[in-house]
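go over this:
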Amino acid sequence: MTFQIKKSYLAATLALSVCTTEIFAAQVSTDPGDYQPLPAGYNLAVLYYQNTDNDDFYVDGDRISGGPTLSTEIGIARFVHYMEIGGFVVDPQFAIPFGSVKLNAGDSELSASGMGDPIVGATIWLYNNAETKASFGLTGWVSLPLGSYDEEQGGINLGENRYKYITQAAYMSPMFNKFSYELVGEYTFFGDNDDFGSNGITKQQDAQYGVQTHLNYHVSDTTKLSVSYYHDFGAESEVAGIKQNDELNNSRFQITAQHFVAPDWQLQLQYGRSISVENGFFANSSVYLRLLKVF
């Protein structure tokens, strides 16, 4: 048990980084309706707030008694512009995360605050049926190592001091009556962090894969309720050439309520929780708020 506790703490302090929109989840977690394109010329300004309590830590599928805990408060500012190129709708966009993260492990506490790594990218919709509302889009993102980073903190930082390349492919379609669904696949390639920890060692990480699904019920033209499922695989890290045996096989669920309070303003409330965790933190409670402006 002593070995397991040490291993869990090592994994927490070495592997923890704040992803653009999530902790130990999809690199870019989609919301219901994210892959519904708007006509060219429209813009979105979006502000997110996320609060997550992670009171349990797992190693190889086993909960570590007395293991580390993690709490986060993250905001994200995002801008999206819709345009048409060669007959296809494209949405160049950027997102800037900010906030704070706190890790407690026994008598030790580590915390960080500031700006996270901004990401830039775009989706191109290769199929977009305006009548049926079915669509298929491909997205490419780049996470830029510009966020707050202190090598003495190891992985407890808002920034990751490395590039990340994220791709998604998504299909959405109506089902029957007022129901629709969305299916998203994700692949992430990680660059190296060559200044990780006080000794300036190198952290590498295998590719991460994931699937995200949303089942939506359209209450009205202005209100939608959704149930979402996220599952992530891979992403084992290697520090100073030593594999950490921390690959993901983690799943979680989320429920969402979206409502347009005005024709150009939408409020979104979400609640989520982990279902199973192979390695990493179990999200006991996650609350998400989003304010969206269309212009």
Notes: The helical segments are 2-15. The chain has a mean pLDDT of 89. Residues 2-294 form a domain with the Lipocalin fold (CATH 2.40.128.130).
